Structures are given as structure tokens and as C-alpha cells.
């Protein structure tokens, strides 16, 4: 093997629990390992990235990764770390979600090569759809005692109604058996000996290894990574508007880039190890550079660049950098015109917006009328004149004068005008009927 997988996880801060014998197994042979991904949405979010990076490092170290999407388990819902039962999905929604997830995973994992350790996507619906309830409780259920299942933390908390939970349904109680059955199936069909996941999955993973031992007499292994938190104790991957998604329709590349760029120094130092493939030497060099001039945010910029290119593209990264410059640096009308509508609106989200019709831009309206009567950005014409006199007014990042023509050439993306008063006060004009 080229690199020691466990050692790689260890120095990156990605190792929490490890079953005895796991490291020895990985050094002895090429190991097939899997991570389960819940397909409750048609996009992954950055909370999934830790598991994906575990699979990526596994493949880089010469082992074979399996990404298991829980088409069947997604119909039940995993109680681990949850206080209430989740909404169940239908078959059509699940198959759509699975297809979208595979597309995103292929940006990280090599599915297409003919190498013996090419990644595979498996869906537990494929082997669970024909299993009857009677055969499941006969073939699987009889091997694990209720006492064993009750001892798991995720079950204990829900069962006792702790922390405002509403108890636990039979459906959820059996979840660990269904997940254990996945591990058993993958061991029997793909010689998969290792299951990985977040530390909240430890109970489910150990149920799987116990089930395998009791049914086959074989040994199976498990390891987990820590659940990622922020240095201030806040939840990782959540913003005011919710999850940070990998799908550009749900979270624009600009917002995705900004999320990593705005991480604290302490978080960036951890995240750059977990979420990039940079070597220890490369990371330490960036940390030294950062320590010498923290205000330049070398760590955050390296992290944001690496992930934006990997998840989106080089072009999306360049647009995100250019968009960031618009608010925080110097930029021009030309750089504004390069932005697509989604990025433009992401940058100016929350900026006061006025509407006016395309007729205003027929060449007969003065700039003073546009900014006062037509849009109400200024309370009066005299206020506009004062701002022009003070040279503090810009249209689309260019200094304006009374003679600035108001015509269709002014429109950005055919529908917007950016007005700036002083350094920090922005206003948008949305032009309807264009």
C-alpha cells in the first residue's frame, strides 16, 4: 500500500473510534470499505464531506471505496443524533436523489477507471426491496437480542424520552438491524470488511459487526471520525439560510466560497486538514504564511479555493473571487458585467431594491429623476444633486454625473442597475418588462 490510511486519518484529525485489528487489516491487504449516505435530498451538503473525504483518502491509499446510498433506509430514518422521527420518502423521489448524489460523488471518487480499487455506488434498496418482514425477523432479527439493541446510546436517549424527544417507533428501533444487514450483505457479495462513518454511527456499526460475527463467524471492522463542530461550539455547515449545499442551484458557488472564506482561523486550520488533499508539508507552509500576516487570511483563501474548484469548477472559483472583490475591494463595470444573474444577486442579497419599468430607460429620463421620482432611492432631487456634487455617487461601479445617460446600455444582465452612495451604501434597481 502506498500510504497508511489510519495514519493519514490520524494526522488530519479524522479518527475517533477504531475497532481492534482494523489498522493491521488495512496494512495486510486491499480492503473494501463503505460509508452510508442518506438520500433524503437531491444534493449532498458540506456535512457529508467528512465521510466523502474518508472514502477519498481510502482510495488514495490503494483501498476500494463503496458509497452506499440508503434507498431502503431512507424510507425509515436513522434515529442516531435525532430527537424526532423524520419524514419518509417515496421510491420515485429516492431514485432521483440517488442519481443526483452519484454525480456529486464522482467529483471526489474515481468510479470509472478499470483499477481494482475503483469506487462503486450501491443502493440498499436493491437488496432490501424483495425482503419480506417474516424473512427479515427470521434470518436477521433472531441473531441480535433486544437487550443488545436497547444498550445503544441512540436508542436509550429516545426510549427514555430524554431531551424533549417523543419516544421511538418500532420502525426506527429496527434501523440498526437494517443497517447491520447492509454490512452483512456487502461482506457476502463484495467482501467488504470495514464500515466507516461519523461518531454518531458507532452503535449502528458495532451492531453490524456483531451480526456478521453471529451469522458468518467472520470478523468485520469499523472506524469513525469525529463529528465536525465549530470552535465557538456552533453547528458546522449551517448558515442563517440553512445548509451549505454542493448543488449550485441550492447554494451558489459564490456563497459556497464565502462560507469557507469566513471561517475563523482556528476552524480553518482544522478544516484544511479534513477537507483538502494537501500534504502535511503544504498545510504547514500555508499555516506559517498565515501566522506572519493573519489579516491576509492565507488559510481561509487556500481552503476556499481548493473546495470551490473541486465541488464546482475553476471558472466558478474565479467568478466567486471576482464577486468578492466587488464588495470588499476595487472592481469595475466590466467585472460586474461578467457575473451571471445568480452570482450577482448572491453578492447583493439583502441590499435595498427598487423596481421600475423598462420604459424609464428609453433615453428620456435623467439620472436625477431615475434616482428620486422613479425609484425613491433618494428622497428628493436636491439630495441626488448634492451626492453628485460631492462625487459620492456611482452607477455600476463608475462615478456618475448629471449627464450620465439613462438607457438600456446601463442594465446589468438585462434587468439590474447597481447604485452606490459613498463607500458602503448599495442599492439595486430591478428593471421589469425588459
Automatic annotation (TrEMBL):
Got a GO cellular component term for this one? cytosol
| Principal localisation | cytoplasm
Biological process annotations from GO: tyrosyl-tRNA aminoacylation
Which PROSITE patterns did the record assign? AA_TRNA_LIGASE_I (PS00178), S4 (PS50889)
- Motif extent ('HIGH' region): 39-48
Task: Supply the Gene3D superfamilies for this chain.
Answer: HUPs, RNA-binding S4 domain, Tyrosyl-Transfer RNA Synthetase
Domain Tyrosine--tRNA ligase SYY-like C-terminal span(s) in chain numbering: 347-429
Protein's UniProt keywords contain Chloroplast: no
Residues bound to ATP: 238
HAMAP family per the record?
A: Tyr_tRNA_synth_type1 (MF_02006)
Quaternary assembly: Homodimer.
**What is the protein name stated in its UniProt record?**
Tyrosine--tRNA ligase
Q: Provide the taxonomic classification.
A: Bacteria, Pseudomonadati, Bacteroidota, Bacteroidia, Bacteroidales
Name the gene behind this protein: tyrS
